[in-house]
Amino acid sequence: MNRIALFALPLTLILLAPAGAQDVSLSSERGSSVVTFHLRGESVIARATTAAVADLRVIGLAGWPGLAATWTETAAEGTQAWYAISTDGTRVDRTTPTQYDVLLRYDTFDPLLRTPQVPGALSARPGNRLWIVQWWTQGLETYRSAVRSLGADIHLYLGHHAQVVEVDASQIAALRNLPCVRWVGEFHPAYKLDAALLEFQRRGYLDQPSIAVNLLTTRRGPAGQGPVGAGIEALGGHVFHQSPETHLMSATLDLAGLVALARMDEVQWIDPWGGIGTDMAVARTFFGADYAEALGGLDGTGVRGEIHDVGTDLTHPELSGAIAHGAPGSASHGTKVAGEVFATGLDPQARGLCPSGTAIITDANRYVGSRYAHTMQSVDPSGIYQAVFLTSSVGNPWTTTYSSISQNLDLIVFDSHLLHCQSQSNQGTQMSRPEAWAKNVVSVGGVNHINTVSKADDLWLGASIGPAADGRIKPNFAAFYDAVYTTDLGGGYAAAFGGTSAATPLVGGAFGLFHQMWHAGGFGNPTGTSVFQSRPKETLARAMMTASATQWSFNGPSHNLTRVHQGWGHPDLKKLHDHRARTFWVNETDVLANLQSTEWNLDVLPGAPELKVALVWADPAGTTSSTRHRINDLDLKVTSPTGTVFVGNVGLLSANYSAAGGSTDDVNTEECVFVRLPAAGVWRVEVIAADVNQDGHVETTAIDVDYALAVLGAEGTPLSSAFDIELTSSGAGLGDGHLGLTAIPTGTTQGYCLFSFATSQVLGTGSFIGLVPDFSTWVCLASPRRTGSVLHWSWPAPSSIFPANDFDAPAGFFTLAAGTTMDGMAIALDASWTVRGTTPVRRVTF
């Protein structure tokens, strides 16, 4: 390409003159309000809008190279708050609309507009050390470090943009003066109480002299539980259970003692206690187990799974070889559950999904110690159990809320990495086992199959359903709710076991066979000497099962088999087995800091029936006093070869397949994109760490997250063989540059290279095929097609001409300020102007 073609770009494409000091300004240009970040060496437009912009606030902290700003925009539809963040002072990482409601169960409120009315008996008193701190933007570790420098400890995350911190009242004024802090208010005792306990306080009496409660300590383990236990005893109460490895304790107190307990800074939450309750030959064919065994030899050999129930008949001939974990009990319910997974098939109708596996039997009412310690024994690599999954068809009393039990189980799964399957229950409403509301748990609903393999007669009748109270998709999967033939107490059999008690072990058994498939290296994965040693992260097991699940057809949120009745569908071992060579996966090996992202290029072959992408991450235990229980937020974005963008979970509440476009999901800890009849070519899958509030990757000291990704119907394409654009420069303002294209798609006759100096957003998240378009982008698109042009090029081209030959600009070629950043991408077209492929968006700094 020649210099004339390049300099056809007008001088207005050059960035604003570099600013001397970091700041943010508001200006009016051509009828638009423009928010500009003046960063080191350049100025970047963070937001241009026709709305009226006001209330610009700039946030900086001593020693922080970054910068943030907030403002409001008023248009015909109303007023909207916005913020933008530059984490390191060289680029704008995120620009986004936001809101400031504090999401408490007690009340939802914007604290600058109003605060809740709290009864005097349940309000904070002098000496209180627990406070809510709300940030102006999403929380950043820089903000949290500033708060810690005042002697504060940060305990809990609250939406939106808030934390519960422990600090002496003498530091509150200094806390409020931090530029990043929007509001500080007391974390009242009322905020720590479940609605039922608040009602007891309102009416002023209990139905009995004392009440049994679960409570969560503010600090984890003995350091937090010791003072609370002593306080309960001093109040005349009694601690009857505690989990010394977590936050959970159980105690009895009278009404006055309950209030005094809520006043303790060492306590974060209290809710009612309740005991454990139960949830009461076609299955093997329906879930693909017979097929997977016939073609892949999958029979559960080497698989060890835990049956967490209320007693199992260890003498049943079908369960020979079962191992008791803790004191055994014998009951019909647990015997039925165990048989669905591990029955050897002496009666062929009762043959379980893993007939050659080993059952580990736990009686939920009889083992000694905490569930946390018990679970850690199950995954001890030097122990005798070495379980790869657990299935539980029992649980604590029904609720619609995320409780202390939910929080405790989230923590157990997060630490143990043991895949947990949990029955949703059988109430026909959202009333469910609290264990099923845990984010890190596989919750299982039920669909009546009328004892046939066909789905045509399937329907939902009485299983408990989602969504969770905070809007999360639950259950995760569904299975048979009726007519399951299985083992029973006394060496016999049950002909019609049902409920989610029956559905859950079917899903657990499917996970067992997945682990056997993984141990065999069926997905091109590394393996160990045993199924346990080979096992992937539990998040990847969930992602793989989600991506390979078969859905019941439905249309609309009111359909009988809608998303929150069936979850992601039912496990399909046949599909998983058949697609093992066309499945791409990430096993928590990619680690992202806040606002970082990773992209993957994946190849879809012509004629593929569907593309299914599942993103799953293990989330730290949620905040029970909040109405939002997600802590860290990751976003999934999938771009087709033609530039169509799909965002995680958009459209999936109402249909089997995703809708294009839409807003990102900030509620769920699983995000999916399902595309029917995907276009052949290279698809781009991006994972974005949109909001990291707590460490999700504890293997390092940094505050970061990892994740699992499974893509069914595609395989990874090496970057060297994928259509891509190369943009490089020596930097330091030398004015040189390199531009090249690789692997131009077959059938291409022409194409564009598009550029933009609007580099304010996370790379690749713009509205125009990942690019944030500016005036230079439209100049590129308006350029005529010419041989050798880097803007609108012809293909094929002579070997010495772009794009067959890379374009290299010598030093001084570009008149750009040092540190200027530019994004670029390419589109390949055929003779009929059909898109043959798009490259990722790349960024260069001059």
The average pLDDT value, as a whole number, equals 92
The major pleated sheet works out as: 7 strands, parallel
CATH topology of the largest domain: Rossmann fold
- Give the number of helices: 17
Low-pLDDT segments? 1-20
In the CATH hierarchy, what is the architecture of the largest domain at level 2? Answer: 3-Layer(aba) Sandwich
Radius of gyration: 29 Å
Shape: globular
Number of strands: 45
Number of domains: 6
Which percent range describes the beta-strand content? 25-35%
User: What is the CATH level 1 assignment of the largest domain?
Assistant: Alpha Beta
Q: What is the helical fraction, as a range of percent?
A: 10-25%
Please report the distance between the alpha carbons of the first and last residues. 20 Å
Structural class: alpha+beta
Structure description:
- The protein has 846 residues and is an alpha+beta fold.
- The chain folds into six domains: 3-8 and 721-845, Immunoglobulins (Immunoglobulin-like), CATH 2.60.40.10; 16-98, no CATH class; 102-191, Alpha-Beta Plaits (2-Layer Sandwich), CATH 3.30.70.80; 193-272, Peptidase S8 propeptide/proteinase inhibitor I9 (Alpha-Beta Plaits); 277-534, 3-Layer(aba) Sandwich (Rossmann fold); 579-717, Jelly Rolls (Sandwich).
- 17% of the residues lie in helices and 30% in strands.
- The strands form twelve sheets. The protein has a seven-stranded parallel sheet with strand order 20-21-19-22-24-25-26.
- It is globular.
